[in-house]
Specification:
- By secondary structure, the chain is mainly α.
- 68% of the residues lie in helices and 2% in strands.
- It has a single domain, classed as Arp2/3 complex 21 kDa subunit ARPC3 (Orthogonal Bundle), CATH 1.10.1760.20.
- Strands 1-2 form a two-stranded antiparallel sheet.
- The longest helix has 30 residues.
- It is globular and about 55 Å long.
Length: 233
Amino acid sequence: MDFDINWLIGLHIPSNLLPASLVWSCNILFILTVLVAAQRAPWKKIASQQESQHVFLGAIVLLLTIWGIKAGISPGLGFHHLGATLFTLMFGWELAIIGLLVTLASSLFLLDIPDWASLGINGLMSITIPVITSYGILKLSHRWLPDNFFIYIFICAFFGAGIAIAASRFAAIALLFTIDAYPSAKLVEESLQYIPLFMFPEAFVTGMLITIFVVYKPTWVFTFDDDRYLKGK
């Protein structure tokens, strides 16, 4: 694992690895996802709460720095903390997609030659898939599990973050395998076998931060409801 000026090399799937038709299909799909998220996002809530604005912007800046802590060598096979579950639980899936988009666009901008054509594929793999996975786990917990503080922390935050990063990496590996971007042995050696190893730190960091926030700053976590998880328990 490293942290240096070259951290972006393995972070993104470069567009030149993919067929042109797939690149633009992913761009269109991701743009549509962002438009839906922007239309549904609780902008009034953010606009009316200055503290929430600061937290949202601060989280974006912090996540861009954390994305610099990565492991991996080959382009598109690097691991890094996603922060998707954390953003989803703190701000809802809509603002999570917007916030992570800003982080992704900033990281692309920092490249010597920004690969803007890869925005769609990386947006789908590193943002849409883990955010929707995290939101799906949250909704499933509401439907099938008791409304309990520990359920929220361990299932939605801890377990959800681990599953989200696994879903993101499995999707990326499956895509790279399907288009024959790398030999299967290389995909296993540099990425697939490390998925369990990277699930735990993503889960631990997310679970720890969400626990701290809901205890000391519950207004920072939009999806945490005192009436649902605490009152009458």
